[in-house]
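Problem 12. The chain below contains 234 residues. Write out its predicted structure in token notation.
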Amino acid sequence: MNKLGKLYGLGIGPGDPELLTLKAHRILTTVPVIAYPTLESGKVLARAIVSDFIRPEQIEIPMPLPFSVERSSQPHYDIAAENIAEQLNLGRDVAVLCVGDPMLYGTFMYIFNRLCDRFSIEVVPGISSVMASAAMLGVPITYRNDVFSIMPATLEAEILRDRLAFIDAAAIIKLGRHFAKVRNILEELGLLERALYIERATLPNQQIIPITEVDPEAVTYWSLILIPSKTKPQ
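Solution.
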């Protein structure tokens, strides 16, 4: 019986290839198979980030995935998981590329849930867009006993408002078409002056725009709003 391959969930960071960890680089450049999500538009951000490190002889498994709140229940992940399992059953190690960190709103989580009972899996952490955005914006996120919250803009307005009403500091991710809703809530709660907008953090086309000047129609999914703590310890 063939020895089963090992599955890696490879966090490749927010976009700048130089933010790839040494461990992720080692695994990426030595595994025989890599898998990565592709968007409905045909764009392949994960592969593009590490394209200079991919070898011609490596087998590639594109994973077409739609943007949806409930992607974990969709058959696209079942298909992707079985394509990966096929390679693992042949004894080939597979690295799944995940923008940011695999276990923080990462696409790899849904592959992990489908294959963790069948194969050996190792997760390699990556720098999340939230942490990278704070660095690019040049602001500390929290101090001392502050609580930091991460919440998706896809939440219903009432739920988002209730959670933002009591924050010390927060990041609101997955903005896209939900930006106007979020901006209105922040204005209502008196948080707009603290809110900072950034898109495509660490990428060459990164933009930091005053939140009052952001065009809601132009906001990308790859953007977030950071609300740093108002605490200023000496």
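Discussion. The helical segments are 22-28, 45-49, 75-89, 108-115, 129-137, 157-164, 179-188. Students who got a different answer should revisit the alignment rule from Section 12.3.
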